[in-house]
């Protein structure tokens, strides 16, 4: 089938699923360079997850990566473009004007792990526990890795999903490419038993990725979605 018809057919299929993200994914997946990139970053994500499991002394080191290797894994890639935006003045009289505009608002990634690459234009910032924002130095030759909400749940809070945002640059375009490694929709998100101890009882109720996604997409970008699945004090189990 000619490439164009294939894309058209997949576009229609994705539209039926009513997911604009999958439209991007399905279209991109036709391009072999993108497919090869996705495969490479998926492998990187899996290796990192195996090392994390090992670091947590979980005997089954593929306990997390298995979810991403699954044929039904709900992973996706997003390409972001932030055109240059002139600096904004909050107050007409104040000077100098030094407010970069927010290109992508504060949030944590809902999936397991994110592998991000960007061009050499900065903008990404992460939030520390005290609420301070720290800029990430852009480097097109390196990957930036974000822990997602699901990994926080599956490690009972040992790895914490990072809140981040992206600012626009006043004179240059920022481009970034994020691979979000996610599990199959019906995957049950639970903590390996070795991580739960009497002193560190389970923090979250078990849930499926489909349930989490439904809850997440009903909330605002910056909302803390994991809080919905947090055990109440007397529900915590060791
Ligand atoms: O462009 C960036 O560096 C951040 C992108 C991002 O946070 C996202 O795509 O979820």
Largest beta-sheet characterization: 4 strands, antiparallel
| Distance separating the two termini | 55 Å
User: How big is the Rg?
Assistant: 20 Å
The assembly state of the depicted protein chains is single chain
How many β-strand runs?
Answer: 10
CATH topology label: Jelly Rolls
What's the overall average pLDDT, rounded? 87
Q: What would the principal axes of the Cα set say about the shape?
A: globular
Cofactors and ligands: 2-oxoglutaric acid
CATH uppermost class: Mainly Beta
Q: Determine the number of helices (DSSP H or I, runs of at least 4 residues).
A: 6
Low-confidence stretches: 18-23
Give me the CATH superfamily: B-lactam Antibiotic, Isopenicillin N Synthase, Chain
Q: Strand order of the main beta sheet, please? A: 1-8-3-6
The structural class is alpha+beta
Going by CATH, the architecture would be: Sandwich
* Beta content: 15-25%
State the order of secondary-structure elements, H for helix, E for strand: HHHHEEEEEEHEEEEH
Describe the secondary-structure layout:
Layout: H1 3-16, H2 20-29, H3 32-55, H4 65-69, E1 76-82, E2 102-107, E3 113-118, E4 124-127, E5 133-135, E6 144-147, H5 149-154, E7 164-167, E8 174-181, E9 188-189, E10 207-208, H6 209-217
Antiparallel strand pairs: 1-8, 2-7, 3-6, 3-8, 4-5, 4-7, 9-10
Helix pairs in contact: 1-2
The structure holds 2-oxoglutaric acid (AKG).
2-oxoglutaric acid (AKG) binds at residues 78, 80, 104, 109, 116, 118, 124, 164, 166, 176, 178.
């Amino acid at each position: 089938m000619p490439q164009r018809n294939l894309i058209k057919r997949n576009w229609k299929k994705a539209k039926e699923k009513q997911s604009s993200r999958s439209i991007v994914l399905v279209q991109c997946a036709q391009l072999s360079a993108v497919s090869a990139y996705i495969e490479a970053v998926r492998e990187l994500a899996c290796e990192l997850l195996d090392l994390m499991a090992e670091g947590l002394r979980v005997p089954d080191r593929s306990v997390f990566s298995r979810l991403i290797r699954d044929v039904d894994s709900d992973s996706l890639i997003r390409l972001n473009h932030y055109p240059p935006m002139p600096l904004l003045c909050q107050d007409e009289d104040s000077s100098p004007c030094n407010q970069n505009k927010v290109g992508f608002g504060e949030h944590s990634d809902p999936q397991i792990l994110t592998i991000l690459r960007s061009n050499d234009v900065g903008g990404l910032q992460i939030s520390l526990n005290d609420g301070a924002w720290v800029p990430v130095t852009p480097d097109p030759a390196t990957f930036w890795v974000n822990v997602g909400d699901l990994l926080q749940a599956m490690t009972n809070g040992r790895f914490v999903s990072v809140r981040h945002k992206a600012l626009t640059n006043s004179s240059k375009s920022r481009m970034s490419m994020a691979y979000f490694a996610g599990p199959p929709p019906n995957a049950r998100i639970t903590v390996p038993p070795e991580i739960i101890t009497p002193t560190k009882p389970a923090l979250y109720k078990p849930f499926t990725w489909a349930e989490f996604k439904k809850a997440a997409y009903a909330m605002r970008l910056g909302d803390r979605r994991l809080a919905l699945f947090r055990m109440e004090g007397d529900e915590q189990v060791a």
